[in-house]
Amino acid sequence: MENIKDKSTCLGKVERCKNTIHHFKTRVESYLYEPTTVALFETKAYLKSRISKLSQANKLLLEYLKSTNEILPEQSKMVNYHIRETSELEFDFMEYTLKFRKPMQAKQSV
Q1: What DSSP character marks residue 4?
Q2: Does 13 reside within a domain?
Q3: What is the count of structural domains for the chain?
Q4: Above 60 in pLDDT, residue 1?
Q5: Of 11, 53, 58, 63, whose CB is crowded by the most CB atoms within 10 A?
Q6: Rounded to whole angstroms, how far apart are CA atoms 30 and 24?
Q7: In whole angstroms, what is the distance from residue 75 CA to residue 72 CA?
């Protein structure tokens, strides 16, 4: 991951993470993804917990970035870590939603 030092770049990336997290929060609550097995209930609870933690971290990062003019190396690392965590959430959520796809029936040959 690149080392982000520019405030506007950091702010833009964290804003995109915020939008992504909000999107997944809305989708995980959707009736389309109501779990029907214990494993799916556990996965949904895990995703909701992770979304909540990432949302809180995102809020804190945005507050910091909006209140400062300079990005310190530690905050740059935090932004990179947050971006990576959001990407991992996206992957985990996609795996969860794939479990709800109905298998396609093979076409019968005529």
Answers
A1: -
A2: yes
A3: 1
A4: no
A5: 58
A6: 10
A7: 5
Query: Which residues have C-beta within 8 Å of that of residue 100, sequence separation ≥ 6?
Result: 32, 33
- If you average pLDDT over residues 11-19, what whole number do you get? 95
Residue with tokens 């990062």: 61
Which CATH number fits the domain that encloses residue 34? Answer: 1.20.1270.410
Residue whose structure tokens are 């190396």: 73
Query: Which pLDDT tens digit goes with each residue over 65-105?
Result: 999 888 888 888 999 999 999 999 999 999 999 988 776 65
Domain membership of residue 58 (yes or no) is yes
Range of the domain at 52: 7-98
Residues 6+ apart with CB under 8 A from 37: none
Answer whether residue 38 is part of any domain: yes
Output the pTM of the full model: 0.81
In a domain, 103, yes or no: no
